[in-house]
Every structure is written in C-alpha cells, then in structure tokens.
Design brief:
- The protein is of the alpha/beta class and 432 residues long.
- It has a domain at 9-89 and 177-243 and 289-333 and 359-427: Alpha/Beta hydrolase fold, catalytic domain (Rossmann fold, 3-Layer(aba) Sandwich).
- It contains 14 helices and 12 strands.
- The strands form 3 sheets. An 8-stranded mixed β-sheet has the order 2-3-4-1-5-6-11-12, sandwiched between helices. It has a two-stranded antiparallel sheet with strand order 7-10. The chain has a two-stranded antiparallel sheet with strand order 8-9.
- Helix 1 crosses helix 14 (417-427), helix 2 crosses helix 6 and helix 9 crosses helix 10 (270-286).
- The longest helix has 28 residues, at 112-139.
- The chain is globular, with a radius of gyration of 24 Å.
C-alpha cells in the first residue's frame, strides 16, 4: 500500500486552549518549538526561515501566518492560529454552576485520571469545613464575625483575593465550563466560536493557485482540542459527499476500513490502520472530494473525559451510536454494515459510474487522530476509552506534584524534547 504523496504546500492550524490567551502567543511558541526540533534532527532544515505574513483568513486582523520555507524533505509549511478567546468574556459563576454541580456530584463513574483531582477537591473542602467548625467552637461566632469584618474592610486584600479567583478560575476554568455546557447563557458564545472556526477552515480549503494546500493538519491544545473536534465533525458533513465525475475510481481503502467498523477485523497495528486512513484520504482526493484535513492532533486534551465533562441529558454512548460524535474507526450502519452509500450514477465514456460516499460520521476514515498527553497532565489522557482503538494514544512520561496538571502548557517547549518529538512525528511534515 502506497500512501506517500508529494505535497507542494501544507498548512498547520493550531487552536489554543482556555484562559486569557493573546493572539499569536500560542502560534509563535508552537512554531518556534517545531522549528528548533527540525533543526536539531534534520540537516536539510538548516537554511529554512520563518516569515510572518498576513494570514488572509481571520477576520480579526490580530493573527498572522507564519510560513516555514521548504526543505529537501518538507514542502512549504504555513502555520495558522484559530483565535477564539475574545468570544469568552466576563465569565461568571452563574455561567458554570450546572457544570460544576455535575462534576462534584456525578451520576456515573468518575474517569480514573480525574479521580485524584476529584478526591483532592473534596478533601480540601471537608478540611476547610472542619477548620471552620473547630474555630467556631474555640473562638465563638462573635469573635469569628469580628475577624471577618476586619478582613473584609481591607480593600487591598479583598481585591487581591477577588483578582486571584477571577484570573485563576473564572478566566480559565470558566471557559471550559461554558463551552461544555449548552445552556441559554452559553449558546451564543459556543455558536460564535464554531461559526468563526468553520469560516476559517473553509477559507483555508478554498485557497487556489500557488497558495492552494494539498494537505491540512489540525492541532488542538487543551480546550482548543474540543473546539477543533467540534469544527471537524461539523465541517465534514459539508464535505463528505463532494466528488467529481471521474472515469477511474479506486476506493478499495473504504472497504478495508469497513472491516474494522463492522467488527470483522480488530486493529492490531495502529501504524497499519493509520496508513490505511491516509490511503483512503488520498483515494477520496482522487475522486474530487474537497476534504484536505489528513491529520488531527490533540495535545493535553480534556476530550478524553468528554462523557464526564459535557453537560447533556443523553449519554455519550448513545450519542456515538447515533453518529452525533464521530469515533475511530467510524460506526457502521446497523443494517448495511457499511460506512458509505453509493452516489447517483453518472455518465462516463463506456457507460455509467458511481462512487462511494462516506457517511456523515465517517470523518476518521480519512483523517488520522493522534492524541498526546503527559503522565503528569490530568487534563489530558488516553482517548481510546471513548473514541475507539483507531486513535493513536501517546503517553509521555513526566513528573509532577500530586494532581497539579504538570506540563500542561509545556508540550512544545524546547526542554520538552520527548513530547516535541511525538508532535513532529504526528504532524508528518517530512512527506516528500
């Protein structure tokens, strides 16, 4: 099976995580980390340069395109950032109360990697309550009241505490709570992020001439990986049935992937399965499908606990069966045991022809999914538990203190060579 393709130009889109992110901060640090690793590991990269150009994609004029010139082993690679933080402003506790309640009082089993965080929060809460009760018993209510009154009248101390709560909690965790909760107070922001993201990805797909991209890679960090997943599953439904009236059709890869979807085969080698996905992607391109996203990379992603984090009255398993959430390999149709349907017949020189069209949730028949997480980062974790054995989970060992999400923002730092190596490998930049 040959899945190599000599791309002339490729694009990498990174989607930042939660918090008070500034435009270009994530993109610049990401590109610099990738560039330094390439320089260390590939002699042909020594003369390449990074140029900052207007991206021509975003509507906010705060972001730019960082273009890495071609090397002997790699085509021109343009790096973009989809910036969405400006849509999440003025977070309040009222926006995330239902989400916090669901996390603290879950109705189902808590995922293993979340247990240490959940237990620590409850231990801390119970310890504070015991201390309060003990102080009330020793000092009495009136004495405690006078002490609190003295503290509250200190405006500087009160302001510092309020600022800490806002910056460390509402401006970061608040973003996650609002995005995971489709309540009326949050729907507008969620929709705006998705509309802007879809427009962004469509513009990259639609570039023509010398600026046309043969291949697009999507990278999502932290909450940005959840945004990325939503954008891909929505955008795929607009691109899945695109094709041209080509006379020669080879779609054998779809039939091979269907064997994994309907249970006839098990994934024994993730390398072979991802090669098959890439082969299927190339075959779909050859029939004129407009989809150019070959790879989806999640880094430190909370998607691994989507069943615990998403506020929804319908179980996550049911939503997967109903094909609302695409999995890897894709869910096969119950009756036909397939992941495709046939197009209407069209005329060719010697008669009629049809092509196979992948169904609306078969996104990961053509897009490889690589998930990277630190052992110390409890925000991220293995994805196969929820999204199937076709996801490549890469565990990178790293030490941390207790439940603190160690290294969550350090995946592409220069000193994080192990995770940088996995990211560069997953990007498949050297594809000549």
């Amino acid at each position: 099976m040959v899945s190599k393709h000599d791309n002339k130009r490729q694009a990498v889109v990174i989607i930042h995580g939660m918090g008070e992110q500034r435009p270009m901060d994530t993109l610049r640090s990401f590109v610099e980390g990738i560039r330094q690793y390439l320089l260390k590991t590939d002699e042909s990269e020594k003369n390449t340069v990074i140029r900052s150009k207007p991206d021509g994609i975003s509507d906010i004029y705060e972001t730019r395109r960082l273009s890495l010139s071609a090397s002997r082993n790699r085509p021109i690679t343009d790096f973009y950032e989809f910036y969405w933080a400006h849509n999440m402003r003025e977070n309040k506790f009222g926006h995330i109360t239902s989400w916090l309640f669901k996390l603290l009082f879950p109705k189902k089993r808590i995922p293993d990697r979340v247990k240490i965080v959940w237990n620590t929060i409850w231990i801390f809460f119970i310890a504070v309550m015991l201390i309060v009760i003990l102080l009330l018993w020793i000092l009495g209510y009136d004495k405690i009241k006078s002490i609190l009154s003295a503290i509250i009248v200190l405006p500087s101390l009160f302001s510092i505490v309020a600022l800490f709560i806002k910056n460390s909690f509402l401006n970061s965790v608040g973003d996650a709570g609002r995005y995971f909760t489709p309540s009326p107070a949050n729907v507008g922001e969620r929709s705006m992020i998705r509309q802007q993201g879809l427009a962004f990805l469509k513009k990259i797909h639609e570039r023509v001439g010398k600026d046309k991209y043969d291949r697009i890679i999507i990278v999502g960090h932290s909450l940005g990986s959840v945004v990325a997943y939503d954008l891909l599953r929505i955008l795929w439904t607009e691109y899945d049935d695109s094709y041209e009236h080509v006379p020669v059709v080879d779609q054998t890869a779809i039939s091979e992937i269907e064997k994994y979807s309907n249970g006839k085969k098990e994934i024994s080698s993730i390398d072979e399965f991802q090669e098959l996905q890439n082969h299927c992607w190339l075959q779909q391109k050859n029939i004129g499908n407009k989809w150019r996203i070959s790879d989806f990379i999640t880094i430190g992603s909370p998607l691994c606990n989507a069943d615990y984090l998403i506020v929804n009255n319908v179980s996550f398993d049911v939503l997967k069966e109903q094909r609302e959430f695409p999995v890897c390999p894709p869910v096969a149709d119950d009756r036909e045991k397939s992941i495709h349907y046939n197009s209407d017949p069209y005329d060719i020189k010697d008669g009629k022809r049809t092509v196979k069209i992948l169904h609306h949730a078969a996104l990961f028949a053509v897009t490889r999914w690589t998930n990277i997480y630190f052992s110390s980062d409890y925000i991220g974790g293995p994805m196969q538990r929820l999204f199937g054995p076709g996801v490549r989970d890469i565990f990178v060992k790293r030490k941390s203190i207790w439940f603190f999400p160690g290294g969550h923002t350090s995946y592409w730092n220069r000193d994080s060579e192990a995770s940088l190596a996995t990211i560069v490998k997953a990007l498949h930049l050297r594809n000549r």
